[in-house]
Model the fold of this input.
Amino acid sequence: MKTIITNLFAIGCLSNLLGETIVPVPEETKRISMYIATGDQAALAEFAQNKDNETEFRQMALEHLTDKIVLAKIAQNDENEWIRMRAAGMLNDQLLLADFAENGKDMSVRLNAIVSITNTVILMKLALNDNNANIRYHAMRTLNDQTLLVEFVKDVNNPLIFRRNAVGSLTDKAVLLELVEINEDGGIRNAAIRRLGELNKKNETDEERIDVIKLQEEIKKEEAMISNLTNDNANIVINTTEDESLKNETTTTSSKWLFVSIIGLLFLSFSAVFLLIRKQRIIKGEKTK
Done:
């Protein structure tokens, strides 16, 4: 971000020196670039507090403010919830951040506030008591409390997507193996296998590696069995139809051959009669002579 701003500032200065516009840079971008490049705290404070400026640029100004009095004023009074939360984060004001995490109207504000919280008491409160599963999960992840994470994963009342994500933060191999063997959700089993693989890369024994491979093969077999059962049901219908078609085709073919055989026999019969009549005529002619 700093590099981009510095480049924009340089382009703006070069444009002024040459008296021509090389790149069309918005006025707002020029101003924030100049304030950051010069480190003008008064100008940055004014820019950050001006609600008419774009939120993105106001945030840039906040990130370069060092005046805690100004940051506190913004954190407590600004109309923009995101800007208030970012200012609280710059201040590292844990109580304000906790308030945003608990009561923020925008989910992105709440989640970003959690990332900035370092107070374990506040995080524990969010992890245990918040009504939103996403907030609880992120608080647990920030805490890295394995006991809470395991309970969260096993609680079927929590959304599957967060339970699966939480598996990626577990470190207890015994718990992960249990999830693979017992859990009914394929996504959680697969997430547990992937996590076991990640942990085994750090400290892997041949026996553990073989166990993981066996578990992977068993899961594949289970999925294949389910798939085959579905396919077999479909094949029964298809095969029944094919058998009926084959029977009809065989019957039709047999009828054709029977017809041809009858015609052939009739032809041979007529030929035999014709030859017999001719032979008798020849014999009579010889007797007459």
Remarks:
- DSSP finds 15 helices and no strands in the chain.
- Residues 92-143 form one domain.
